[in-house]
Write a structure and sequence with these properties.
There is one protein chain. Helices cover about 30% and strands about 15% of the residues. The protein has helices at about 15-30, 50-60, 85-100, 110-115, 140-145, 175-180, 195-205, 220-230, 260-265, 270-280; strands spanning about 5, 35-40, 100-105, 150-155, 160-165, 170-175, 185, 210-215, 235-240, 245, 310-315. Helix 1 links the parallel strand 1 (about 5) and strand 2 (about 35-40). Helix 3 crosses helix 7 and helix 7 packs across helix 8. It is elongated, with a radius of gyration of 21 Å. The chain starts with a strand and ends in a 6-residue tail after the last strand. The model has no long low-confidence stretch (mean pLDDT about 95). The chain binds glutamic acid (GLU). Glutamic acid binds near residues 7, 9, 41 and 216.
Length: about 325
């Protein structure tokens, strides 16, 4: 039995890009007759927008997507909100510590950014960590501890490429040591990092198929290292190409109305919205209208290996 998931961060309303990713994840899970999980990634309190979780769930339902497990419907792997799963992340930290995979780092972000020769990693990953605290002596750690500075915990990244098969892009790989270096799994303020939480949850929830946005492609090699260090088998991965605005930049508010809710409120039919998203994925013709009940017609057409590999330009005005 396959298990897929959609894992939104409740930091705002569902937008077209997120809806498109959710659609593919849902179609892939339904096509394989598997279960589909909704997991809410609300780990970072300042970024969580009150009410966003319920709004995202409503918008997904309005589009015709459903889930077998999630915060609202429960399930065998509850809880389905990351904010309620912190004990599991602590257990994983303990396990990684026991395995010698972590080390305390006392550098601030600014110090890492200033470090000589720290080239920038891909995407939002910031500068590559130059390894400053990798080899701190016990005496140096003790002196940091006395100063009261709290460390982050970083994962000791082994050198080399991490190859993997991507369901959409085929043979893929990344070199986390070269791209980002030893990455943070628990921040100095005690918050667990996305990279850790997502791996712990995908393993604990027995997720077999991770279908998510291509913005996370560069995270996958890091996550595979974490799966291995935690003694868990990595799932299959597929990264849905991003949506771009007409200027070639990532689709954003300045390109027009991109919130699903707003489009529905303006009277765009859910079936039309889904059909347009499906059309950008080559799953139906541009003018093919789908009634909500016909969403299931797309299931048979969604073969990940045949989805487009490059980003789609989307004009929100056309929705
Ligand atoms: N919560 C992440 C996001 O909304 C997605 C995480 C994932 O799918 O691995 O970008």
């Amino acid at each position: 039995m396959t298990r897929g998931r959609f894992a939104p961060s409740p930091t705002g309303d569902l937008h077209l890009g997120g809806a498109r990713t959710a659609l593919v994840a849902w179609l892939a899970a339904r096509r394989s007759g598997g279960r589909f999980v909704l997991r809410v990634e609300d780990l970072d309190p300042p970024r969580v927008v009150p009410g966003a979780e319920a709004r995202i769930a409503d918008d997904l339902r309005a589009l015709g997507l459903d889930w077998d497990e999630g915060p609202d419907v429960g399930g065998p792997f509850a809880p389905y909100r990351q904010s309620e799963r912190r004990a599991l992340y602590d257990q994983a930290i303990a396990r990684l510590t026991d395995g010698g995979h972590l080390f305390p780092c006392y550098c601030s972000r600014a110090e890492v950014a200033r470090s000589a020769g720290a080239p920038h990693g891909p995407g939002d990953d910031g500068p590559r960590y130059p390894g400053t605290c990798r080899t701190l002596s016990r005496a140096a750690i003790a002196s940091h501890q006395r100063s009261g500075r709290r460390p982050s915990l970083r994962f000791l990244v082994p050198p080399g490429e991490v190859p993997f098969h991507d369901g959409i892009h085929g043979a893929s790989s990344g070199d986390p040591a070269a791209a980002v270096g030893d990455f943070v799994v628990r921040r100095a303020d005690g918050l667990h990092a996305y990279q850790l939480a997502v791996v712990v949850d995908d393993a604990a929830m027995a997720i077999t198929d991770v279908v998510r946005g291509a913005d996370l492609l560069s995270s996958t090699p890091r996550q595979i290292l974490l799966f291995r260090a935690l003694g868990a088998a990595p799932p299959r991965f597929a990264h849905v190409p991003l949506c771009l605005g007409s200027d070639g930049e990532r689709l954003a508010k300045r390109h027009g109305t991109i919130a699903v809710r707003q489009l529905l409120e303006r009277g765009v039919a859910a079936s039309r919205l889904v059909a347009r998203l499906a059309a950008t994925l080559g799953l139906c013709g541009p003018l093919e209208a789908l009634a909500p009940r016909d969403l299931r017609d797309l299931i048979g057409r969604c073969d990940l290996a045949h989805l487009p590999r490059s980003p789609s330009v989307i004009d929100p005005a056309g929705f």
